[in-house]
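Subject: for your reference before the review

Hello V.,

The reviewers asked for a structural picture of the protein, and I figured it would be easier to keep everything in one thread rather than splitting it across files. Below is the amino acid sequence we used in the manuscript, unchanged from the supplementary table.
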Amino acid sequence: MADKTKLEKMKKLRQLKIDPYPYTYDQTHHADEIVVNFPKLDGRDVSVAGRIVGRREMGKLSFLDLLDGSGKIQLLVKGDELGKKSAEVFGLLDVGDIIGAKGKVMKTQRGAISIEASDIEMLAKSLRFLPEKFHGLTDIEIRYRKRYLDMITNLDSRKAFVVRGRVIGYIRSFLDRRGYLEVETPVLQPLYGGAAAKPFVTHHNYLDSDLYLRISLELYLKRLIIGGIEKVYELSKNFRNEAVDANHNPEFTMLEFYEAYADYNVFMKMTEEMLSGMVKELKGAHQIEYQGRKIDFKPPFKRIYLVDEIKRHSGIDISEMDDKAAEKIAKKEELDIPTKNAYHVADALFDKYVQPNLTDPTFVLDFPAYMCPLTKDKRGNPKLSERFELFIAGKEIANCFSELTDPVEQRGKFEEQDAERKKGDAEAPPKDEDFLEAIEYGMPPTAGLGLGVDRLVMLVADTPSIKDTILFPTVKPEGRRD
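And here is what came back from the structure prediction:
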């Protein structure tokens, strides 16, 4: 609830004919601009606007910490030197209020760049107190549930979202320069597909039909390749009905791009170029630090082979593993997975023996064919598929295929997936007849790649949880402790 004392101050402002919520304010400078350009601005009049996040009194002097969109700047206020209206506003100020201030740029005796305020205007009277010791709250989910408080009290949180914007901006620019067309495909789909995941289901009343929130962008973007758009990408939300942890959120941002007449070798080089260039532009060097670990994005990235690595670390050859053998291996290895078929067991073995050791950017190449229902066979070895996944700091960042374009083979693999789903594999998608019809008209050789934007931002912004890169992540209902 609103604080009674603050409500009284708001009423007092109105009695003084001062609007506590005016329409506009002439803001000439931001905090970071003043700090960076202090030698040029020293002694000049400026006007700034922002939220008061700190206040200190020293005799007749008051010091206000003003937080704007760029950072903090100190205001020095001599109450007896303010005009009548400004003095009235100043007398009713609280930490949390949003104000405008005009005055001269200067340095205090202690060398702090400040603004000696000559005029103060109320721009928004805060009716609640900001939380004290916000970072000490035991329920960290309040940071995610009430992101506005997090961003007021935690500048590192703001910086993470600035990084996010720059990462996305770089990706768009990189693809646009190469002639890719950005598109939007349906979020609500009559069938879900393109990945192994549980969907969210909803119902359209007018059509009296169930619809699914998409789990992948893939099958619709491939329809556009078939339709003649040779280079296409989409940066959009996907939705998967899965667990919430440091690396997973049910609603997340994916980049997917497809190019006709390319293969996974072309995309390996392109991915190196995109990510190394992005880090160099954003950080000024190819090296970053993530959670205390140094990561080097200088190309070429390391390349390893999935089957060989699992065999080297575990002694298990997964190249021809069938479901019966997989079940025995899962029991022996004590793999905690709900579905113990070849696909899921091979994936779990990789997670157990290989993934945690991949720190620098590493391409993991050539998955068993049974793990890749949308991928061409490896040239010269039909037991494998032309697929790579990119891992950085132990996290899967990207997944790429030389796309399967044979409609007969694609139908067979869809039917295998459909059979697995009917046997109880909740993550196996259904057969998509509309996509099969599209590919029967002819799909050119194509490479496709999906990249997890939130996880990439985690690395560049150095945040421990995916929730720190999503403005409003999924959290448990307020009040629940389970």
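For the response letter, the relevant points are probably these. The two ends are 26 Å apart (CA to CA). Confidence is low (pLDDT under 50) at residues 134-138.

Happy to draft the paragraph if you're swamped.

O.
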